Task: structure prediction
Amino acid sequence: MIVFFIISLIFIPMNCDPIKRTVIVEYNPGCNATITPQCHNLTDAVNLVHVTASGTNDAIHYLWSTVGLPTFIVARTPLDSKLDISWSDFILDKPNSVSIVPEPYIASGLTLYNLYEFNSTNKSTVRIEHSASIRKILVEDLAWNRVLKTNQPSWLFNTTTEDDQNIHNSSDPELGPVGHLAAILRAFRTADRDTKIPHLLHSENSSQLEILLQNISTHFEFPRLAVELVIASSRSQDSLSSLSYDVSYSIDDEYSPGIFKTETIRTSNDPKLNIFYRWKPVSYLTPQRTMKSSTDTLTNGDFIMINRGELSGLMRSFQFPSDNILEFQRLNVSYGRDDDGFYQGHISWSIIMGFGYPPDDELSFYVKLIAVLGLGTPAVIVIVGGVYSWFVRKRKRRSEELKILVGSGSD
Amino acid sequence: MDDKGKIVNPSDEDSDDEEEDEKLSGCGATPICNPHHIIHRFIMLIFMCLLNFGSYYCYDNPAALINHITKDLNVDTSSYVLLYSLYSWPNVILCFFGGFLIDKLFGIRFGAFFFGMFVLVGQIVFSLGAYMDYFWLMAVGRLIFGVGGESLAVCQNTYQVLWFKGKELNLVFGLGLSFARVGSTINMNVNGPIYSLIASSMGVEGGYKVLGITLFTGAALCIFSVGCALFLWYFDKRAARILKRPETSSEETIALRDVKDFPISLWLIWLICVTYYVSVFPFISLGKLFFMEKFNFSSSQASAINSVVYLVSTIASPLCGVLVDRLGRNLVWLISGIILAILAHGLMAFTFWNPYIAMSFRCQLFSCSLCSMAHGCSCCADQSIRHSLRFHAEYPEFGFGCGSNYCWRYC
Result:
C-alpha cells in the first residue's frame, strides 16, 4: 500500500499528451510595396510580425511591431479570425488601423516605452527610483532593421539607439562597438521550457520576449540601466485596477539555480480573461548566460497611469476589445545588484507573455525520486530495525522466562 | 611535588628515590613548570589545543571567502570545490600510514613539527597562488595543507593520550574539539571584514591581490601553530625525562595488520562517522552561497549562520562529552542527532523558514554525535584506542573528498 502510494506520487503527476497549437507566421501581411515602400526596407524598416497560434476552439494572435514604439500584443480570439491592417494609417499612428476580425475575447500588450541610464550614486543604488541622476535614452521612432528569423525559430528585432547612431555615423574606430537595442520574440505551439537559463516555463498559449541591451554608450561613472514598460489592459466598470503584480516563492530552483522568486503581472483574476506577463527576477551581464554573470531584475510593482495619446505605434493603432475600460499603465524595471560591477555592455532579460493560467514550476521526477529515496530509506531502516530489535528482545525475554520457569520447576 | 599537587619538601625525599627523582629548581619547582602538577599539564593542554588552531582556521578559509574566490579568480563553483576535495584526498592514504609515520619514523614531537610545517607551507603556497592569480597553485597549496592537516590532528590526540589518562581524556578531547571549532568560527566571521579592510586600505573594490593578503593572515596563525609544536616538543621531552616515561613497549606497537582484528561494530561506527561528516562539511563549504541566494542574506549574515554550528559546538562539545560519559546511551544520542539533522536539511531544502531553526537542530548532531562515536570507539576497541582514533580522524577524509565533488555535481 505504502509502495503504491510512493510510486503514484512519482508517476501520476507526469503529463499526458501535451496540447499543441498550429503556428503560422506572417511578415508585414498585406503591405503593398507600391503604396508603402518601407515594407521591403532592410534598414529603417517597417516591421510587423503576425503569428497565429490556432487551437481546437480558439486562436491566439501575436503582433510584434517596431513601428513607433516597440510593441508586443497578445490577443485571444475565436478560431476563424483574421488580421485587418490599413498600412497607410498604421504608419501614421492612426487609431484602429490594425484590428482582428471578429473582435478578440481579450487582448493585452507590452510596449518598451523608455530606456534609462541612471547613476548608482554611492555605488549601492540599484533601483532607478532611488537614483538622482537619470538620463533618458530614446526608443521611439528609431531606425529598426528588417526583422531576422533565427533558427529557433525566433524573430530578432534590432536597432541602434540614437546616441549610438551618431557614434556609428562618425566612423571613428576608437569608439568601440555600436550599441544595440534588440528584442527576440518566440511564439510557442506547446508547453515546454526555454533552452537558456532561467529556463522559463511556457504554456502552449504563450510567447517569449527577450530584451537585449548591448553596448549602450553610458555617460555616468557607475552606470546602470532600467526600462520603462507600458502594459495595456482592460477592466470592467466595478473593478478597481486592471493589473495585479505578485511575487511568488518556490523551493524549486531546479531549472533556475539560486532563483526562488517568480514575478507575474496579470490583467484579470479570471483565468479565462487573463493575459499574464511572467519572469524570473534575473538578467544576465554576458551574451552567454551563466549563473556567474547573473544579476537582479528589480521592480516594485507600482503602476502609473499613462494616456494613450502619449504612446505610438501598435499601442495606439490596435483595436482592443471595446466592452471594457482600456487602461495603459507604466512600470519601471531596473537591472542590477550590489556587487555586479554595474552595466558592462550587455543585459538580457526574458519575459513570458501569454493567455490563461501562467504555468507553474513543478519538481521533476528526478528530484521527487531522490527525495523519496533520501527520506524513505532511513525511515524504512529505522522502522525495520526497530521492529526487528523489538522482536529479538521479546524472544530473548521469553526464553529467559522459560529458563526461570524450568529452573524453578526442577527445584 | 606529588601527583596530587601537594608540595613536598625536597629535603624530605627518601634517599632510595634520589636517583629516580630529578631535582627541579627555579621554575621547575613551581606548579607551572612541574610536569607532575595539574597546572602544568593544563598549560600543556592549552598549547596542544592551539596546535591545531591554525589548521582549523585555514581549513575553512575557502568557505568564508567563497564569493570572493569565485569572483576575483574567475573560477566556477566546481573548481572551488576542488580546494576542499584536494585537502581530503591525501588523507585517504595517510590514514593508513600516518600513525605508522608518527609512531615509528618521526616520533610524536618531530611529527607534530613536521606536519605543522606542511600546514604552514601549504597555506603559504595557497595564499601565494591567490596573490598571483594562479588557481593551480592554490590547489597545490591545499594539497600540501591536506597532507599536514589531519595528521596534525592525530598528533594532538596522541599528545593528549600521553599527558592525560582515564576519565580526564573525555574532557580533554572535548576541549580540543572546542578550540578547533573556535578557530573555524573565528575564520567564518573575521575573514570577510579582513578582506574589506585590506581592499579599502589598498583603495580597490577587491581583486586577487586582496584575496592573497587576506589568506596570508591565516598563514600567520599557522606560524603560531608551528610555534606551539616547538613549545610542546621541548616540554614533552623535558616531561618524559622528569617523569621517566617508559619507551613504547612491544605490546603497544600497532601494526597495520591489526586492522583486520577490529570488530565489525567499530567499522560501523567509522561508516557512520564518514556519512555524518559528509553531510556536514561539504554543506558548510557551499553553505554561504546557499544562504545568500535562497534566504537573501548578506555576505556577513551568511558567514555568521554558516559558523553557527561551529560556535555552538565550541561550548556544547565538552558539555556533551561529560553528558555522554555520565548518562551513557550513546546510540540514543546518535540516532536522535541524525534524525534532527535529517529534519534540519529537510527544513532548509523544502521550506523558507528562518534557517537558524534548522541550523540549531544541526548543532545537536554535531556536538553530541562525535562524543557518542568516540565513546563508542573506546568501548569497542579498548586496547587499540590510539590506532582506532587515528582511523577515526582520517577515514572521514575519504568521505569529504567524494562528498564535496558529488555535492556540487548533483546538488
Remarks:
- DSSP finds 14 helices and no strands in chain B.
- The radius of gyration of chain B is 22 Å.
- The longest helix of chain B spans residues 77-131.
- The CA atoms of residues 282 and 407 of chain B lie 7 Å apart.
